[in-house]
Design brief:
- This is GNAT superfamily N-acetyltransferase.
- Pfam families: Acetyltransf_1.
- InterPro entries: Acyl_CoA_acyltransferase, GNAT_dom.
- Residues 5-157 form the N-acetyltransferase domain.
- The chain is an alpha+beta fold and 202 residues long.
- The chain has one domain (4-183): 3-Layer(aba) Sandwich (Aminopeptidase), CATH 3.40.630.
- 42% of the residues lie in helices and 28% in strands.
- The protein has helices at 15-24, 27-34, 40-46, 98-112, 127-135, 158-193; strands spanning 7-10, 56-62, 65-77, 80-89, 115-122, 139-143, 146-154.
- A seven-stranded mixed β-sheet has the order 1-2-3-4-5-7-6, sandwiched between helices.
- A hairpin with a 2-residue loop joins strand 2 (56-62) and strand 3.
- Helix 4 crosses helix 6 (158-193).
- The structure holds coenzyme A.
């Protein structure tokens, strides 16, 4: 059972961990995620665009490491506001509900940005992604070399607005704690290991 609080919005300060997650993906997963066999250099430059403009990234964070992620990239489409989403869950973390938890966050995000079309592209043989999308009532459009999941007319509700506000506070607190641990953790441990100066002469 996935602890849902571990799925949170990632910030620019999480870029390093997000990059490390994408770099850990094996070649088959990279092919499923990006639609081609991408090298490390591609990921290095790709990840720089993930936190730009209105793009959002959600991650499943365990022991300070991002083990699963989903990107939300909005754009103006012919029917109004559209967004493209893409998922990646590391091999050993699959089939535990992480993809579903990430999808829930994307639906809330899409609702609150009044998204007329949420689209996800995958390869025809990618049953996992298509089944996951169907769980969220996506319509799957078939093309010879691609499948496109589409969810239409996502509008804000009182619940979706409240949920994102609450999630953002938790995400911010969790990211801040992560930074604190990274910056102060090792130093604090080192200080603790040093002999304490005597306060009075022997
Ligand atoms: C697609 C992906 C994100 C699913 O993540 P996940 O964390 O395993 O998903 P969940 O555990 O939440 O599974 C939810 C549902 O998806 C479907 N599903 C997941 N993996 C599946 C698989 N290997 N085969 C068939 N259906 C699968 C099932 O219906 C599952 O529900 P169930 O467990 O009740 O049967 C993951 O397999 C992945 O990262 N794949 C590589 C990258 C990729 O393909 N990205 C998509 C293109 S952007």
């Amino acid at each position: 059972m996935i602890q849902t609080f571990r799925v949170r919005k990632l910030f620019a300060t999480d870029l390093h961990e997000y990059r490390a997650h994408l770099l850990r993906l094996d070649s088959h997963t990279r092919y499923s995620r990006f639609g081609s066999f991408v090298r490390d250099a591609f990921i290095e430059s790709y990840v720089e665009s993930s936190f730009r403009d209105d793009a959002l990234v959600f991650g499943y964070v365990e022991d300070g490491l991002v083990r699963g992620a989903a990107e939300f990239r909005p754009y103006r489409g012919e029917h109004g506001q559209h967004a493209e989403v893409a998922f990646s869950v590391e091999d050993d973390w699959r089939r535990r509900g992480i993809g579903s938890s990430l999808f829930e966050k994307l639906i809330i995000t899409a609702r609150n940005r009044q998204t007329a079309r949420l689209v996800m592209h995958c390869l025809p043989e990618n049953r996992a992604m298509q089944n996951l999308a169907r769980h969220f009532q996506a319509r799957i459009r078939l093309a010879p070399d691609e499948r496109t999941g589409i969810i239409v007319n996502l509008n804000p509700t009182a619940m979706s607005l409240a949920q994102e506000a609450t999630d953002d506070w938790r995400a911010f607190a969790s990211a801040a704690m992560g930074i604190h641990r990274r910056v102060w953790g090792p130093r604090q441990l080192a200080l603790d290991a040093e002999p304490r100066p005597r306060l009075s002469p022997p």
